[in-house]
Write a structure and sequence with these properties.
The protein is α+β, with helices and mostly antiparallel strands. The protein is about 40% helix and about 15% strand. The chain has helices at about 25-40, 110-125, 140-155, 195-205, 240-260, 260-265, 275-285, 290-295, 300-310, 310-325, 380-395, 400-415, 415-435, 445-465; strands at about 1-5, 5, 20, 25, 40-55, 65-75, 165-170, 175-180, 185-190, 215-220, 225-230, 230-235, 270-275, 330, 340-345, 350-355, 360-365.
Length: about 475
Amino acid sequence: MPGPNGWHLPMLEADSRSETSLKSILVDSFNIAGSAFLDVQVTTLSLMTFDEEMPHDQPDASDVDCAIRTFAVFECHLNSVTESAKPISISPPSNGRWVAHEDLLTLVFGNAIDRNVVQAWFEEAAGHGNTLDIPWWKPGWWREATDWIDARLEESGFNLTSPIVQLKNWYRSCLLRLETDNGTVYFKSVPSFVGQEPAVTRALALQMPVNLPQLLATDEMRGWMLMRGIEGTLLAETNDIVKWAETVRFYAQFQVNSIQNVEILLASGWHDERLATLTAVLEEVFAALPALTAGAASAPSSAELQRIQGLLPQLLAKCASLISFRLPDTAEHGDFHAFNIIFNSDYDRRTPIFFDWADACISHPFFCIALCSYPAEVPNGMAGVDHLREVYLAEWHEFAPIERLREAFELAREMEWLRGVVIFSKFLRYCLDCWDQQPPLPYSASAWAFRQQQTWLGYNLTDAIQSVAVPNQ
């Protein structure tokens, strides 16, 4: 679109509607805005957010020197989002124009970030530069996925009653909602680096069908699963401490019962994040920190890195202390919080249902304790936290006296950073290994994903530093 200082990407106003369970704005709000602007049905290929330094003479500048801008990459469809993709000729909006890659050599942009994002898209689409292989970021994926969805719904005797709604789209998953004559259905796609989720969910649904979403179909090779929606109340939306207590009690029982199956679960693809495994790679992770944090928005200085790396002996000592309690590693949800648990109103209001098993792993059992550690998020505040801890630990009575369990619990709470440091560094190292140790294509969706993982690694490193200053109780 033309502007007083040059061309710029269209600025769209997206509805700020959000879905509580997603803790984010609905991707569908971008699709609605894009469809209205282009006068053709669109779906979102990718979303990315970048900070921009803004000169004050720009039309969209404010009193601040930077702005956070979200960019959406759309795929256009013919008459229906489930219709086959064909070359389409779409007239640009009034005063606008389409550009080809070669146009960037002469086109004058009003701000650098728009040009950089457009350049990155052309490079990424051509297969140039370092990018992540995320299937739903590619044109044509929507047709492939919706064809599969249509076929699986037909096999299950379900019929769509309204257009498919795109709920979430980022590098870790794509989530769609389908309204049918048999109720709400969800489709989830995950990338190869968390591709275990369909298999894990299917296996757990056989083991405890009342406590998992009902699966209609899976395609484990492509990381796809189709599941019935759950009518009920998220744990995060209730102040009923009894429901919270039932949740932690059931989860502890699940963990205890899973101890005997650890080797089977590892062989079936569950991530190995046992305490000894995490500890063994920590020295290697810390040695790689300069490369893993390079280019991050808040990258530590050389002096700060040296300080962090100098704390390694103390951090390893804390790991050894937790290992000394000799509590068995077992099944862990990996992202066990109150937004991933729902109480089904159609079955038993006291029966928790657990979903989003993308980070399922074998690890130290008490690393799940985030659910019952933060007074601001738990009914009755600190009293609620203490009650949930006791309910949870009661199920572990056969492994140690209650006082020892409390000590291990508190030490594990201080060490929540351990899994985060190893997991986020693992993703970053995977990317750098794929990219010959080079950074991602700047201003691409892959760059946004990489920077976000760097940010989360930074948060966990901060927690690690703080943990060695916290005396054991």
